Every structure is written in C-alpha cells, then in structure tokens.
Amino acid sequence: MLDQQGRDRFRYNNVREGWDTIVGFDACEDRLEISLTGFRLGLMRGVLQSNQFSLGATTQTTHRFLFNNDRLFFDPDGSGARSAILLAKVTGNDLSRTNIVVV
Fold it and tell me: Is the pTM of this model over 0.70?
C-alpha cells in the first residue's frame, strides 16, 4: 500500500488481514484503523491505550501491538504462548500508539 501524501487510513478488519507493506507512512498525518469486532481482546474504541503498545518485544501481557524493526505485529496474548501475527511492514516516519485507532 502506498501513502498518498495526505491523511491516509489503513484499515485492518481482523487478524487474518495483513502481511502488507505500507510505503511512505507519515506518523504526523496517517493512521492505522483496527476493527474492534475483528480483534477484540481488551481493546476499546479510540486511540490505542499506552499499555497495549510496545516498541520492540513485548514486556507485558497487556501489550497487543508491537512495533519492531519497521514491522507491526498483533500479539493476541502478550505472553509469547501464542505467536505474534505480522500485520504490516511500515516504512516512513516512526509509528507510535497514537497512529493506531480502534474503530
């Protein structure tokens, strides 16, 4: 997927969607939209909660989204018992939790 130089929205409806490459992501304007009904697991509508995001490897069981080496993963349990699922490779500005919105 290619950023179109504006306020782009990249939507994920469930954990089976993914393995995308997002080129030119602008952390100041763009966002990833995550479907509440497709992901669940303690998520709430709105900007992703700080305890549900990690830069690097997961360190808490509340972490659901991990951004590591330009790759965004969804971790269904935060414990490593179940493997994290690759959603996207994101190139451009660094992604933060405020770029992830649960809808």
Answer: yes
